[in-house]
Amino acid sequence: MGLFGPSKREVWEQLCRETQATYVKGGFIKTAKVEYKYGLWLIVLDEYTVSTGKSSATYTRIRAPFIPREHFQFHIYRKGVFSGIAKAFGAQDIATGDELFDEMYIVKSDDDWQVRRLLDDEVLRVRLLAQKSFSLHNRPQGFFLSPVKLPPGAEQLEFQIGGVIRDAARLKELFTIFALVLDGLCKMNAITNEGVAVEY
User: Fold this and answer.
1) Residue 28 placed within a domain
2) Per-residue pLDDT tens for 161-177?
3) Rounded to an integer, what distance in angstroms lies between the CA atom of residue 129 and that of residue 121?
4) What are the contacts of 48-53 at 24+ separation with CB within 8 A?
5) CA 100 → CA 42, 55, 59, 161, 163, distances in Å?
6) From the CB of residue 150, how many other CB atoms can be counted at a distance below 10 Å?
7) Residue 36: left (phi > 0), alpha (psi -120 to 50), or beta?
């Protein structure tokens, strides 16, 4: 226990004990991470920092590679300072039919019907509504689209939360949300349940 509460490692090790995940130490280049096997998927939790010149911002991130059955891209994020500007410039905002969810979130996709099917899960919507801010999207293969080299035909699901989370219970909840999204995409037949070998 540090002066300002538990360290990242302490929280992540607690998370691993409670979820049967694996803590992976960081090194000179790679950062520490938590790996969680869910079915045949490998879910990875880590943190990363983005520098913007005079300041920087740290994000908590959960990722998993998957094999898509069809082309289907989506991006779901909490409305904020820039969401109104994005809409003004023609960014697509898809209504889900849930008034509260549509009031709080921006939903973009190249397939309105499929993303509505994904968000038709009331349990998933309620859990997402409990999050203060997040970005959930899938990234196709490509140097500028995915910072990780994926196997041919693979894509990546990514869930980002602003800030550093030092609460094992909340991290478990984020894992649960992420698993619900993977399950939903699989039930929709949008992705397979196959595992993909990627070195994060």
Assistant:
1) no
2) 988 999 999 999 999 99
3) 12
4) none
5) 32, 34, 26, 20, 24
6) 20
7) beta
The number of beta carbons lying within 10 Å of the beta carbon of residue 168 is 19
Q: Is 7 a member of any domain?
A: no
Give the angle 171-176-182 at the CA atoms, nearest 5°: 125
What ranges make up the beta strands (E) of 102-184? 105-109, 135-139, 155-162
C-alpha distances in angstroms, 92 versus 7, 42, 65, 84?
A: 40, 31, 26, 11
Residue 197 lies in a domain: no
Contact 16, 33 (CB under 8 A): no
Tokens 């694996």 sit on residue:
22
pTM for the structure as a whole: 0.88
User: Among residues 180, 149, 153, 141, which one has the least CA distance to residue 62?
Assistant: 180
> Does 3 fall in a domain?
no
Angle at which helices 8-19 and 168-187 cross, to 10°: 50
Q: Please tell me the least confidently modeled range out of 48-52, 117-121, 138-142, 144-148.
A: 144-148
Domain span at residue 178 reads 46-187
- Give the burial class of 6: count Cβ atoms within 10 A of its Cβ; 0-12 exposed, 13-18 middle, 19 or more buried: middle
Number of domains in the chain: 1
